[in-house]
Amino acid sequence: MSNQIWRRTSAIAALAALACVAGRAEAAQCGNSAAGFESWKRSFAEEARGRASPASLDALATTSYSTATISADRGQKSFKLTLDQFLAKRGGPAIVSRGRALKRTNAALFDQIEERYGVPPGPLLAIWGMETGFGAVKGNINTLSAVATLAYDCRRSAFFTDQLYAALTLVDRGVLSTNTRGAAHGEIGHTQFLPKNVILYGTGGSLDSAPAALNATANFLKGHGWKRGAGYQPGEPNFAAIQGWNAASVYQRAIAQLGRQIDGQ
């Protein structure tokens, strides 16, 4: 084969490969309204065949575009408040009061968790109180629809596509179903775990069980570098693990402050 023919053939092959890649990229194209969601679902399911089971893709087919999820995703204004404003809005004093009571009545559980993961009760109770009011408000949005909507939505499509594949895995494991309901971004359980974090840090047992959720939360913090016995206030070694829980600075500082108060420091 002459160099000229070889170059022409290589160019044609490269263009074909690019066309194929472009076709795949366009197949499950993100969108910013409900209009393209059903088409996106079909395209995503086609791409996911072989990676996700038929049963989990059947579950995906039942999902609907969640306007409540998009509204919540666009409306997170509380993260722009000052720390004092944020704590007042989230009921900081009530979280501390209830957290101290739960620490006393569940001392054996928190001792076991600290022994295993090195995480004291304060930050766990602060997260539990902040996320769901200690299990009182875990959300009522269809979980699969929420995650699928955010995987389709252009704002954070790549991140939530990863979460969607994790959610489909959890369908196969019986952890999620088409009826599972939780928070607006697809979080579930007492401390609101996204699907991928359920897989990575769940310790067995439903996260609708407080002990299972608290163990999983401690496991998450340990997995993000928590060091036994070290401080967790801003500038201290374990604050980085709290930062791993939520990207909002005011949320991170709130958890650290509430945890310190619950631990009586």
UniProtKB/TrEMBL annotation:
Residues annotated as signal peptide: 1-27
Keywords (A to Z) from UniProt: Signal
PROSITE patterns recorded: PROKAR_LIPOPROTEIN (PS51257)
InterPro entries: Lysozyme-like_dom_sf, MltB-like, SLT_2
Keyword Signal part of the UniProt annotation: yes
Listed name of the protein: Transglycosylase SLT domain-containing protein
Transglycosylase SLT domain span: 37-232
Pfam family, one: SLT_2
Source organism of this protein record: Methylobacterium iners
